[in-house]
UniProtKB/TrEMBL annotation:
It comes from the Eukaryota. InterPro entries: ADH-like_C (IPR013149), ADH-like_N (IPR013154), ER (IPR020843), GroES-like_sf (IPR011032), NAD(P)-bd_dom_sf (IPR036291), Zn-ADH-like_protein (IPR051397). This is Enoyl reductase (ER) domain-containing protein. It holds the Pfam family ADH_N. SMART domains: PKS_ER. SUPFAM superfamilies: GroES-like (SSF50129), NAD(P)-binding Rossmann-fold domains (SSF51735). Residues 63-404 form the Enoyl reductase (ER) domain.
Length: 431
């Protein structure tokens, strides 16, 4: 669990005391605070350390709909859910949004003021369903999902953005680490776009990252062989741990981990492929921006799926590297299929395809944390550690996911039950 220096903790006590006083001023007659803690940015930041939680008004269904009207955005169809957030996860895109250098900042989707965060887990506190439509959720349900503004104590979001836990074997902490904005990206890229098959070999770049670790696990679950690349020795050992046979403790033939900061790493990939009679990998999963070098170790008629450009390191704190330029003659000579995958855009344009993808994803996760296991760098206690987690991610220390525990799961459920009692609605007895 994350800790902090003595001076930092002292500051936190002062901040929390001020926040508690603010909460006390804004309390309803029934005893429920009208304020909540959130990573709410009034403007873009220059330093991640300057990101601190503040107290803002607790969301209501009325305020949510009013905000959409103010921004001239259509109200979502179907029921809305008010969720008590227990866990949220830090992603690289949080750094970009905070510094104002993401394309969504420029398009107007994330314009200050806004609350950071894109994925979460928690407990349904209330349901807004004025049209009395069929709704799969009830107060007290444990859920996980992706939405804007998840680095907060509470959230209102369309029911379509939420999912029940795949099985009782998963905890809310586990699901935040899996990430509704992370795991589906890797699963969709490997199954829907790349069509990865059993017996094929896949090269996973940044294999210790949030997307990479689950690409490794998904590929293994599909019966593929995995070669991973990482940028440091520490991360190399993390991915080796994912590849080792639990029975023998050895990494199977034709698999391995390579440091891509080493010149000529492509040759090492080819050498691993030769162990199983291949002249290159069948599929490349690229979240870094290494297409040109990856072509050199991809077999004829192979597929390269581009999901991101982590090597384009600009987050507002340093110079932005140019996107790589690909000599298309190499694509032609090897008859390579160069594919791109944007999970969010696919969901908007091809919703039926996304529904089918989630069905397959749930079949995999329904087995519990066995074949697919959450990979957690560190769990930080409280939103006041969000800047620490973001700094660690910026310094490339994080492997898997950095998770923030916003609220204890049992405490969250008790609060939801209390609110339901005050509102005259019953929480299902099964909880």
């Amino acid at each position: 669990m994350a800790g902090g220096s003595k001076s930092f903790n002292t500051n936190r006590v002062v901040c929390n005391a001020a926040g508690d006083a603010k909460r006390a001023e804004m309390t309803t007659p029934g005893g429920t605070s009208q304020m909540m803690q959130a990573i709410f940015l009034k403007d873009h930041v220059k330093r991640l350390i300057d990101i601190q939680p503040t107290y803002i008004s607790r969301p209501t269904f009325e305020s949510y709909l009013a905000s959409l009207r103010k921004k001239k955005r259509p109200a979502p169809s179907g029921p809305l859910l008010h969720v008590k957030i227990t866990h949220t996860a830090i992603n690289h895109v949080d750094l970009l949004y905070a510094h104002g250098v993401h394309q969504n900042n420029k398009s107007g989707l994330f314009v200050p003021p806004f609350t950071l965060g894109l994925e979460f887990s928690g407990i349904v506190a209330a349901v807004h369903n004025p049209e009395n439509e069929a709704c799969r959720f009830s107060p007290g349900d444990k859920v996980w999902g992706g939405s804007m503004g998840t680095h907060a104590e509470e959230l209102i979001t369309p029911a379509s953005d939420l999912h029940h836990l795949p099985s009782p074997l998963w905890s809310l902490h586990d699901m935040a680490a899996i990430g509704a904005g992370t795991f589906p990206v890797s699963y969709g890229a490997l199954t829907t776009i790349a069509g990865l098959k059993a017996g094929e070999t896949i090269l996973v770049h940044a294999a210790a990252g949030g997307l990479g670790v689950y690409a490794v696990e998904i590929a293994r679950a599909l019966g593929a062989k995995v070669i991973g690349t990482v940028g440091s020795q520490h991360k190399l050992s993390v991915v080796e741990g994912l590849l080792r046979d639990p029975q023998t403790g050895h990494i199977p033939k034709g698999e391995g981990v390579i440091n891509y900061s080493k010149d000529g790493w492509e040759k090492d990939v080819v050498e691993l492929c030769k162990q199983t009679g291949k002249d290159g990998v069948d599929v490349v999963y690229d979240t870094v921006g290494l297409v040109q070098k990856s072509i050199r170790c991809t077999t004829f008629n192979g597929r390269i799926v581009v999901v991101g450009f982590a090597a384009r390191t600009g987050t507002g704190a340093e110079a932005v590297e140019a996107l790589e330029k690909i000599p298309v003659n190499r694509v032609l000579l090897k008859q390579i299929k160069l594919l791109g995958y944007r999970y969010g855009e696919t969901s908007r344009r091809l919703p039926d395809e996304t529904v089918k993808m989630w069905q397959g994803l749930y079949q995999l996760l329904s087995q519990g944390p066995t074949v697919i296991k959450p990979v957690v760098y560190k769990t930080y206690k409280g939103l006041d550690h969000a800047n620490e987690a973001m700094e660690a991610l910026h310094r490339r220390q994080v492997f898997g996911k950095a998770v923030i525990e916003v609220c204890n799961e049992d405490e969250a459920l008790q609060e939801v039950m209390q609110r339901s009692k005050q509102a005259g609605t019953a929480v299902p007895a099964r909880l």
